[in-house]
Design goal:
mainly beta, six-stranded mixed sheet, 173 residues, 2 domains, Elongation Factor Tu (Ef-tu), domain 3, SH3 type barrels, elongated, seven-stranded antiparallel sheet
Length: 173
Amino acid sequence: MKTLVVGRITAVFGVRGWVKVHAYTEKVETLCSYQPWLIDTPAGVKPIQIDEWRRHGESLVAHIAGIDDRDIAQTWCGNDILVEKDKLPELKSDDYYWHQLEGLSVVSHYEGEQIRLGTVKSLLETGANDVLVIKGDAESIDREERLIPYVDQFVTSISMVDRRIDVIWDPAF
């Protein structure tokens, strides 16, 4: 079972078994459509069912089914919420989940040359656009870390078959 971290139970909320949840999904409500939640605990992955939830500011509060005690709810806090990757909805052909881009090689086509910059280590969400975090590796021009805006101006193509992202980026940056 391949899983992906989609959120985290952060704290208790009230005294009746509710918890605060920080979602890593673009739309926080999406998190509640993945049931049961798989919780990554020190004792292993355990499923829990959420029977009620609501938005609370930028995050969620949720009630764990069968738990009506604050102290018991507290035992779930600080744990990641996982989802099986195959349960994620299909995207349009030119859209990608961040986890699909992580690990792809990045090649810059700059001034007529092809220069390997490294691999996608992660992505950052900014107010304006997402940013690829590229880490140099043994096959790249250097071992530097680069931040490349994930926009059409710089990212020219993505090939999942070749596990490669082509960009227009000055390697000196």
